[in-house]
Design goal:
Radius of gyration: 18 Å
Length: 244
């Protein structure tokens, strides 16, 4: 890590404040090793922990990861069940790690579609870490960007129905405040591993002016050196936010 930090300092790299990551390639990583897909998910969860630590040490303040999408329910029951068990274990372990590392954790997505025991673990984790001042770590579980916007629109429509606002009152900020990510800055950099180059319904509203970095590296193999490469790429972009 000292070498990485020296490179950031020597190259005067601007470290993105908020990095969003689509964790892709766990299944393919396992297949290459003649192992079941779930083995890849276990290894991928370990990579998440390492990248969280490395990213924070590099100066990243917010990390948001796509753990389970609304579309992932279409996978085999065995894989979905294994993923849910892995997420439950991860959330339990995360309580101890987060407390130790002063990390605030929140979960975004439609919690109504999750098992009550899993929701209880999510609520406990968010409550225990709510006052942490270190890295802000967000996990997207049963998350779909279009569904998130739909739910926000429903809340706005309900307010309009109750006479709390009129359609002309609706602003972009009002919509943002009703999204799952309310209170979080929009990501500066999106990383997607495994060679795929699409958003897959991840944060479509929030990624409007985000820089995208795609890599062929499968998620379980993603390292701090790969994260540094992404940060270097980010520094080569000129962010104009629609201006000249």
């Amino acid at each position: 890590m000292e070498t990485i930090l020296k490179a950031i300092k020597d190259e005067k790299l601007n470290v993105p404040k908020h990095v969003a990551i689509i964790l892709d390639g766990n299944g393919r990583w396992a297949k290459k090793r003649n192992m079941p897909r779930n083995f890849g998910h276990v290894q991928g969860s370990k990579t998440v922990e390492q990248i969280i630590e490395d990213g924070y040490n590099m100066g990243i303040e917010y990390i948001t990861v796509y753990a389970f999408s609304t579309e992932n329910w279409k996978r085999s029951k065995d894989e979905v069940d294994a993923l849910m068990k892995l997420l439950a274990k991860y959330l339990i372990d995360c309580i101890e790690r987060s407390t130790k590392n002063n990390m605030r954790v929140r979960v975004i997505g439609d919690k109504s579609g999750l098992d009550k025991k899993l929701v209880d673990k999510i609520n406990e984790l968010e409550e225990v870490t709510k006052d942490a001042t270190g890295l802000k770590f967000t996990i997207a579980i049963n998350y779909g960007g279009r569904d998130e916007i739909r739910r926000a629109v429903c809340r706005i429509a309900e307010d309009a129905k109750n006479g709390l606002l009129s359609p002309s009152d609706i602003t972009e900020d009002m919509i943002s405040e009703r999204l799952d990510t309310a209170g979080l800055p929009d990501p500066d950099l999106l990383i997607r591993t495994s060679g795929e180059e699409r958003l897959s319904n991840f944060l479509p509203w929030q990624l409007a002016y985000t820089e995208f970095y795609f890599t062929d590296v499968l998620w379980p193999d993603f390292s701090k050196e790969d994260l540094l490469t992404a940060i270097r790429y980010y520094n080569g972009r000129e962010r104009r936010f629609g201006g000249v």
